[in-house]
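Incident log, structure service

09:12 report received: a user says their structure output differs between two submissions of the same chain.
09:20 pulled the input from the user's history:
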Amino acid sequence: MYLQALREIQSEGVSVVSSEEFGQRVDASAAQFRKDLSYIGELGRPGVGYDVAALILRIAEILGLTQPHPLVLVGAGRLGAALCSYPGFAEQGFRIAAVFDNDPTKMGRRLGENVIRDIADLPRVNAALGCRMGIVAVPGCVARDVVQAMVEAGIGWILNFAPVAVGAPKGATIRQVDLTHQLEVLSYYMTVAKHGTDPEA
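09:34 re-ran on a clean worker, output below:
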């Protein structure tokens, strides 16, 4: 969240930002911002503020974002197509290097800059690509099998868009992105607000 806000500040031509100004951007107190940054070193100057470019670089280093990350995408449906065309990945150093699916009618077609490959070829293809991160955009009924196949192919850091929670196999890390679930959460907050109750109570 801090990195995203800092990049936005930099795009506005601002080179130095105070903790008070930054706190307003991320809805956090200046004290909390200073405390968080104290864990990564003394980066600010009292009475002056924080060098935006230096802070972006330091946070990017901690997040491992100073080098590009090729990704494998499994799922060449509508969601997969949308993810392939999303410019935000490339802007932050993420590149979809290969796309896989199990639908024979899709094999050989292009999706963005990639030709759709058979999921059965994942181990062989990734042996050459060396991708360690991947995205799952398949129906929930096959998500677990896909995750297992990715892990066996050496892809241990996975972003799962399938509408089902998938337990992480040993040695793997999975982040779940369920858009419907988030809408359900918003619906709950909207409903309780309508009745004048506190959703946090």
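09:41 both user submissions now match this output. Likely a transient worker issue. Closing.
09:42 reviewer note: The longest strand covers residues 94-101. The first helix runs from residue 2 to 11.
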